[in-house]
Amino acid sequence: MSNTIKVILITVVIIAIGAFGYWYATSGSTPETTGVLQSSNPALGGVDSPLAADDTAISDKFLALLLNMRTIKLDQSIFSDAAFTSLKDFSTTITPEANPGRANPFAPIGVDAAGAQALVVTTGLTAAITKDTATFVGALPVGSVVTKRYFEYGTVNATPLANITAGVQGDVVTGAFTFNITGLTPNTTYYVRAAAVANGTTVYGQMQSFKTLAQ
Description:
By secondary structure, the protein is of the alpha+beta class. It has helices spanning 3-26, 53-68, 82-85, and strands at residues 122-123, 134-139, 148-154, 163-164, 168-169, 176-181, 189-198, 201-204, 208-211.
């Protein structure tokens, strides 16, 4: 038998004994309100009752039952009794669901992180190119749920690229996102790719290249 049932049984017995003890300790005072159970039986230490004869008999029996509770003892042998050990524990363990719900309930149906649609990142053509600045362009399907969007770039066509832009924090994406980069070297070829993070996984777009102006 589980310890939980033992604790419950002991608690119930203690509460019953405590209630009886409180009643027994305070039973010496005469109740001021009529209608409270009283006994006219001297053996029960009662007082004259204003109740009817039938009610008084019932009160005597009830109070006698309470007095008999003084004989109750907390005997641990009850837990080894066959009637007790034959009890069965029918408690059931609740297993959490593998998919408790949508990560973002406000995202369109079918495109949130809990949906089946895979995250797709697109690297757009770099815009507004000057000798030392440019605008990186990336895109995600509208409604994609991501925690971060950013770009990688460098002068060597090898991943991971040497430099990473500051991340654009986001939740539900509205489509395209950009980043204005500065401090580039004139007349130099750069490689860039967009990236996004969803559910702890980073997804990259295709590599694109551009060349800064000489002057």
